[in-house]
Amino acid sequence: MTTETHAATGGREGNPLWSSRLTFILAATGSAVGLGNIWKFPYITGENGGGAFVLVYLLCIALIGVPILIAEIYLGRRGRRSPLATMVHLAKQDGRSHNWKWLGIMGMTCAFLILSFYSVIGGWSMVYVGHAFNGAFIDSTPDQIGALFGGMLQSPGNLLFWHTLFILIVLTILAGGIRSGLEKAVNILMPLLFLLLLVMVGYAMSTAEFMTAVEFLFKPDFSRLTTEAVLSALGHAFFTLSLGSCAMMAYGSYLPENVSIPRTAITIAIIDTLVALLAGLAIFPLVFSNGLEASAGPGLIFQSLPLAFGQMPAGLLFATLFFFLLLVAAVTSAISMLEPSIEWLEEKPALNRVKATAIAGAAVWVTGLLTVFSFNQWAELHPLAFLPVFEGKTFFDILDYLTANIMLPLGGLLMVLYTAWCIKPMTVIDELKLKSGTAALLLPVMKFVSPALLLLVFVYNLL
Ligand code: PFF
């Protein structure tokens, strides 16, 4: 990180910027690549019947995700403040309503809520580092592996412990000004995760059902595509790119002026998508070869991968490394979820970075208890069952649904609408340094295509 002048940082005196485009790409990729790619993508693909869902997801990334990613980072860089203050500042500068602040408030809240359950799942990956290292998977049967997973969920004390530890790790990194340590860590660990996924795909290729899995993932069967699946694909495109929650806006607020946002956004989207597809190719062959259910839900990777690790050569090493890297991916995403809240608290005169981090952290830890108990004590508690969409859903399910399927797409919609309709087109072209060809493509997509598609999915789902 370098320190730039008062003018360059839009009024945040002495505030730091990312040291280079590469650093920003690493941090933003660190935010994007996380449990969403390795844990969530495979299990929701399994729940939604495979190929057709994957196709819709890829279309959502390209047609909606990338333009909105560009818009979100751009808004952040223009504002150079916390997301809330950024929206207030931009609305004033562009002569728009003060109510745009609600976009900042919603995004910040959404990222906060996501972290509350994300950290519990992050805790699972810590438990599994331990299991892996102790050789718990070696020569285990699917039933034994299933029991290991079930046992973990049944113990609230255990989940609470790991949730707490996960939050503490995230806070420690955030409090100390994340960048230098984070930059270095992500630099080495992300490529390593990628490599390890390739090894896992290599192993999966040797199993009997590899081609079944490839067909499941890439041969669309549109008869299995429900409305809910389309909404889920859209929501996941947002989740996996960390979009609509102001996390990318907060990271964008530290981005140097000379970096090309469109190129950067495309790079992030490609890496993120590759990781998700590799995870699918590593996991589904094992699921099918071992007679497991593709629609097993949130436990899918914790019940399928250990079987492979238990049988492959040097499985203990690979398993430990894998769950450790999953944890790293989760941590680098988690820090981006709290950054908007911290940046906002930090703007209060009485609070410095450390205090702001402590307050945000304590609040998210408490909110996380809802998820901790969703898997045991409150597993049968369906607090919003009187609303049809929340029937049968625990606190965890509700938080997941509300954030990914409603708040993130809505936040993204507002961001792209603001960029395309509330800022003068010449300003956007100028500040994004768009060549005429790119501008002719990107601006109409931002103005019409992405919002129209988003609205279509929303309205269709409501009806
Ligand atoms: N993109 C992260 C993942 O795929 O795991 C999740 C995420 C990060 C969502 C940051 C939202 C966010 F603000």
* Tally of separate domains: 1
Q: Structural class of the secondary structure composition?
A: mainly alpha
Hetero groups in this structure are: 4-fluoro-L-phenylalanine
Order of helices and strands: EEHHHHHHHHHHHHHHHHHH
Remind me, CATH topology?
Answer: Amino acid/polyamine transporter I
Q: Give Rg in angstroms.
A: 21 Å
User: Uncertain runs with pLDDT below 50, 5 residues or more?
Assistant: 1-11
Mean residue pLDDT:
91
Can you describe this structure?
This protein is an all-alpha fold and 463 residues long. The chain has a single domain (3-462), classed as Amino acid/polyamine transporter I (Up-down Bundle). It has helices spanning 21-32, 35-47, 51-79, 83-93, 101-133, 142-154, 156-175, 179-205, 210-218, 227-240, 247-252, 261-289, 300-311, 315-346, 353-374, 395-422, 425-431, 436-462; strands at 2-3, 16-17. It has a two-stranded antiparallel ribbon with strand order 1-2. It is globular, with a radius of gyration of 21 Å. The termini are far apart. 4-fluoro-L-phenylalanine binds at residues 31-32, 34-37, 111, 114, 239-240, 242, 245, 247, 333, 336-337.
Keywords:
binds 4-fluoro-L-phenylalanine, 463 residues, disordered N terminus, 18 helices, Amino acid/polyamine transporter I, two-stranded antiparallel sheet
Protein topology:
Elements: E1 2-3, E2 16-17, H1 21-32, H2 35-47, H3 51-79, H4 83-93, H5 101-133, H6 142-154, H7 156-175, H8 179-205, H9 210-218, H10 227-240, H11 247-252, H12 261-289, H13 300-311, H14 315-346, H15 353-374, H16 395-422, H17 425-431, H18 436-462
Antiparallel strand pairs: 1-2
4-fluoro-L-phenylalanine binds next to α1, α2, α5, α10 and α14.
